[in-house]
Amino acid sequence: MLDVDAVRAQFPILSREVNGKPLTYLDNGASAQKPQVVLDTIQRAYGEDYANVHRGLHTLSTISTENYEKVRGTVARFLGAPSEEHIVFTSGTTEGINLVSYGWAASRMQAGDEIVLSIMEHHANIVPWHFLRERLGVKLVWVDTAPDGSLDPQAVLDAMTERTKLVAITHLSNVLGTIVDVRSICDGARERGVPVLVDGSQGAVHLPVNVAEIGCDFYAITGHKLYGPSASGAIYIRPERMAEMVPFMGGGDMIREVTRDTVSYNDPPMKFEAGTPGIVQTIGLGAALEWMMDLGVENIAAHEARLRDYAQDRLTGLNWLNVQGNAPGKAAIFSFTLDGAAHAHDISTVLDKKGVAVRAGHHCAEPLMRHLGVSATCRASFAAYNTEAEVDTLVDALELCHDLFA
Ligand code: PLP
């Protein structure tokens, strides 16, 4: 069981005040706070060990390269990938999905081919496919959620036709907290010979992930939600898919030889990593993933499940609060609106005055918002360091909103 006080003590920012109140940070779905070990690692990477990677033969470049490359193995372990060679570093999920769109899908799809998506996707897992719709005439096929916010894996498989070339699906909705049975989707898609990309931006934060067991072709993660630095991330790519990919960006590091007339490429995964990478960000990501694995990803998930149950209980007690999504086993992410005219932005402003940080808006999921019939929601999303007392603080602040706006 997680010792939440001991966890909190590792996050310096959690002891600060906001608007004269103790910070209650419930905007983890947007970005998580960083433990001291990540801050120390960043400080050391810049303050003691910094040099560019791969190209130098001097001592600091060797140390920096070792510290950076070591993270590939850490990510592979974290995701249950068979080898670190299957891991490409990115600046986050957005870059990872764009890499698949430009590097794999664009050269393999033509007009009339189909990509199956759920209605819960984040724009990062929509817009790169719209690019292919605009440029190639690819068709986007949408699968709706059930009224409780759950997604039937069979509905995803039923949406596939002989023109389906890819399923691009989230592991965990950043709005509803719905957990998608990506393993069943991958099983069914494999039988039909269709690759599956999983957006693991939220899934890898809240669930133990094993890409070998899931059976996906691509699994993208983003470091800043995983208690690591912003502009860090990675994507697991199944070797068969990697072999089919062409480079997305050209530049230093991704080449073997460049002449006036020719270019040849480095071996994967570096073939897909052009230019000076986010050296320190990636080293910080390694520290964050080690921190999560030391704590135990299962322990974090169990702690968050307790918080979810408590929050669900308290929030459903507020009969003027409409929580979107109630899928069985959902994650501790609650999007809600209040009865009456109060806009999500006004609610979040009042909560902020009480030191409670939540997100308000469409959460980069406009198709889902339209499907739900709302323009914006407030979202409270929990992490390893949150407590039941913070759920109470949220509820007290929401009651104040109700008094103000009802
Ligand atoms: N997918 C989901 C489900 C997300 O929640 C997010 C971030 O909010 C992203 C993709 C995009 O991640 P990033 O902006 O770090 O690339």
Explain what you see.
By secondary structure, the chain is α/β, with parallel strands linked by helices. It has 2 domains: 4-28 and 297-405, Alpha-Beta Complex (Aspartate Aminotransferase, domain 1); 39-294, 3-Layer(aba) Sandwich (Aspartate Aminotransferase, domain 2), CATH 3.40.640. 40% of the residues lie in helices and 17% in strands. It has 15 helices and 17 strands. The protein has helices at 4-8, 36-47, 59-79, 93-105, 127-136, 153-158, 182-191, 203-206, 211-214, 239-244, 279-295, 297-316, 344-353, 366-372, 388-405, and strands at residues 17-18, 21-22, 24-25, 87-90, 114-118, 139-143, 164-170, 196-199, 218-222, 233-237, 255-258, 263-265, 321-324, 333-338, 356-357, 359-361, 377-381. A 7-stranded mixed β-sheet has the order 4-10-9-8-7-5-6, sandwiched between helices. Strands 13-14-17-16 form a 4-stranded antiparallel β-sheet, covered by helices on one side. It has a two-stranded antiparallel sheet with strand order 1-2. A hairpin with an 8-residue loop joins strand 13 (321-324) and strand 14. The longest helix has 21 residues, at 59-79. It is globular and about 70 Å long. The model has no long low-confidence stretch (mean pLDDT 97). Pyridoxal-5'-phosphate (PLP) binds at residues 92-94, 122, 124-125, 170, 174, 199, 201-202, 222, 224, 364.
